[in-house]
Design brief:
By secondary structure, the chain is an alpha/beta fold. It is 32% helix and 15% strand. The protein contains 13 helices and 14 strands. Strands 1-2-8-9-10-11-12-13 form an eight-stranded parallel beta barrel, surrounded by seven helices. It has a four-stranded antiparallel beta sheet with strand order 5-4-6-7, with no helix packed on it.
């Protein structure tokens, strides 16, 4: 039966690929991993009720690590990112720019506190000026928060964690350039225009309006050579995350979606709560991994379907080159979302919306939302139903009724 299902999925994908033309992914692109204003969609303006075809073209826009990942920096010069990624200010800016939801990465400190951080390691300048490498799991919350301070905190002469504000430890990073290439062994100061303290998940729940949806990516700092994450490490991460979410959502209607590249984490999130959907992130063969569940389109769909997850999150470059996976995911009753720098191009987002993709995670929120708004406004004027409408509010990938944290 399992073999038949895989065969059917492959057949759907081949047939769809023959029937659809695929736009080329952005050159040099490498995948990285609600608005307070009304939508300009025709039905939001009350001109007519949405048809089923229009509803299929709706797509939720998600801010990647808030208002975008910090791709590159030039200390001497000119270019560095605007908002520090994975911070409250960055998430707030994404919501102001029109994001339906914000996506960010979660890790857990040595003392069991859920914080926002993407990279496998935290790199900072040590007492003698040499770079030090630590995992978030090796740092206490006080040590983690002392690594940087927001500009408002520094101006007010307050403390950041347990460190004097003027002596916050300089963070370092190996930056990806905008063309996707990373300079080997090149550590640079992590400089941003608008800084902010490194936040806890509690701070994000408290600081964002309830209408802004949250996509919580559980980030496992495990090497690609590891075929499976040890169960105790899965539990160390999942337990405090679920407890934090439960504290903030018992009387809340906020939209929450869980995600992870780790298939066992997805299974744990699904089995230990039943209120919020869980989606499986996959590179689908873009990068090697010892866990075969992470290395192909078929494997991703198969794992998500067998674990009864709500959906999968694919690299936009893979989906645009393999559009048959939309039909394959639909056949497996899975919602489909995408991530990657291709999503910074509005035309790619339009194409995905027309294919039936539920959500696109991207860095250039303001640019993409403005283009989709412009198209929807033109559709209102010309009474055309052909506009792509970005979705303001919760990301709808299907969610059961009530959260239950289980041992």
């Amino acid at each position: 039966k399992e073999t038949m299902r895989i065969s059917n999925l492959k057949g759907l994908m081949v047939q769809e690929r023959m029937n659809a033309s695929s736009p080329k992914p952005s050159k040099g692109s490498v995948p990285s991993g609600g608005s307070t204003k009304p939508s300009f969609a025709p039905f939001a303006l009350g001109l007519h009720a949405p048809s089923s075809e229009e509803m299929q073209r709706r797509i939720a826009i998600g801010g990647h690590r808030g208002h975008g990942s910090n791709l590159a920096t030039r200390v001497e010069g000119q270019l560095h990112p605007s908002f520090r990624e994975n911070t409250l200010k960055s998430c707030q800016k994404a919501a102001e720019a029109g994001a339906s939801f914000v996506e960010f990465d979660l890790q857990v400190t040595a003392d069991g506190v859920v914080v926002l951080w993407h990279d496998d390691q935290v790199i900072f300048t040590g007492p003698e000026g040499t770079p030090l490498h630590r995992k978030v799991a090796d740092l206490t919350l006080a040590q983690f928060k002392a690594l940087t301070c927001g500009e408002s905190i520094m101006e007010e002469e307050e403390t950041c964690g347990q460190s004097p504000p003027r002596h916050a430890t300089p963070l370092l990073r190996r930056f990806d350039g905008v063309n996707g290439h990373q300079a080997p062994d090149s550590l640079l100061p992590w400089v941003v225009s608008v800084d902010d303290e490194l936040p806890t998940l509690d701070a994000i729940f408290n600081g964002l309006p309830e209408h802004v949806g949250l996509n919580l990516e559980v980030k496992m700092a495990m090497p690609n050579t590891c075929p499976a994450t040890p169960p105790e490490e899965v539990d160390r991460m999942v337990t405090p995350i679920l407890e934090c979410v439960q504290r903030h959502t018992e009387t809340s209607s906020r939209g929450v979606t869980f995600s992870s590249f780790d298939p066992d984490v997805c299974v744990a999130l699904k089995s230990r709560q039943s209120r919020y959907p869980v989606v499986f992130l996959s590179g689908m063969g873009l990068y090697p991994h010892a866990d075969a569940r992470r290395t192909s389109i078929e494997a991703a769909i198969n794992h998500a379907a067998s674990a009864q997850l709500a959906g999968i999150v694919a690299p936009a470059s893979v989906l645009l080159a393999n559009q048959g996976m939309v039909a394959a995911a639909k056949a497996a009753n899975l919602a489909l979302m995408t991530y990657g720098r291709e999503n910074n191009e509005p035309e790619n987002v339009r194409q995905q919306a027309k294919l039936g993709v539920k959500g696109a995670i991207l860095d250039e929120v303001e640019h993409v939302v403005k283009e989709l708004e412009r198209e929807a406004q033109a559709a209102v004027i010309h009474r055309s139903p052909d506009a792509v409408q970005y979705q303001v509010g919760h990301l709808d990938v299907g969610a059961p009724a009530a959260i239950r944290v289980r041992a």
